[in-house]
Every structure is written in structure tokens, then in C-alpha cells.
Amino acid sequence: MKKKKVLVIIVVILVCIITSVCAVFFINNKNDEKVPLNHLINAINNRDASEIPKAFHEYCSFSIEQNISEEKFENYINGISEDFGGDFQISCKITHISSMSKEDIEMYEDNARNIYSNYPYLSNGGTIKFDNVYNITTEMTIKGKYQEEKGNVEFTVVEIDNKYYFLHIPNQMMSAFIDY
After folding, report:
1. Residue 22: pLDDT over 90
2. Residue 71, number of CB atoms within 10 A of its CB
């Protein structure tokens, strides 16, 4: 009888451990509206512009990749480094999210189809269907050895097949190094 109790306890403990590991995995790998923001922040914090196209859906990522100015990106990074110190880090917190109207979503879909119809994704038979488009307000924090500063930055994020990307329109921050 004691062996059965020990065996049951071991099985229960193993099930709890496996469940916990799975929960951590799914929580850490969820795709939400912060995913494109994380790509942008990682690109800036790691001083690596090649991370930025990952924040965009395939329908426009090739165009974004072609239009990132390495020189402007470096100037952007150097400007922050001068003001905050070379070891600066950027972080962000989402403070507000609002969905666009159905009409606006359809307008952006049509706009994307028209602008990117000759790019590889659409010209090779890819399709665009926006599940939703969100206006996201973030509080961005730049922290360095010289100072720390916070400010609001707005982004437009599109949901496609339950995954989130930046919409292909200019943004006050990314316009500093992407030629839209």
C-alpha cells in the first residue's frame, strides 16, 4: 500500500512539473501586440537594424528591409548614445490599445494590396486579410548612464492569422531610419 501512495505522489509531482513547464513555454511564446515592439526594441538595444523587418508581415517586410537606411539607423543610435551614454537601453510599456473600425481595416488592406502587389509575397500568390488593426500608445523609456527619459510613442499594429506585426505605415520613431 505504501508503494502505491509513493508512486501516486511521484506521478502527481511529475504531472505538476510537466504542466508548469508547458505553461511557461506557452506564456513565453505567445504572439501578442507587443511582439513587433519587442523586435524594434531589440534592434535598437542590440544596435542591429536587421531585426526590424521581423516586426513586419511578409507582405511588406522585403520592402522595409530594402528601405532601412543603415546610415540613418547608426545616426539614430549615435544620437541616443550622445544624450544617454553608449550603454543605453530602451524599454516600453503599452498604455492604451484601441481597435480601428471595419472600414479603416478594409482601407489599409486595400492600400497594402495596391502598394505591395509587385513585391514577392503578393506577386507569388500570397494574400492579405487583416483580422484587426490596433492603435497602440506606449510609454517608451530610454535609460542610460547620463539620464533617463520617458515619452509616449504611438504605433499601428496589424493582426494577421492571430499574429501581430507593425502596419506598413510611417511611425514617428521608425521614420528616423526607414524610408517609407
Report:
1. no
2. 9
CA neighbours closer than 13 Å in the CB half-sphere of residue 23:
6
Rounded Cα–Cα distance for residues 51 and 13 (Å): 40
* Cβ–Cβ under 8 Å, residues 152 and 138: yes
Q: How confident is the model at residue 16 (pLDDT cuts 50, 70, 90)?
A: low
What local confidence, expressed as pLDDT, does residue 171 receive? 87
**Is residue 120 within 8 Å of residue 157, measured between CB atoms?**
no
In whole angstroms, give the CA distance from residue 116 to residue 43: 24
Exposed, middle or buried by CB within 10 Å (0-12, 13-18, 19+), for 72? middle
Q: What is the pLDDT of residue 180?
A: 80
Contact (CB, 8 A) for 147 and 103: no
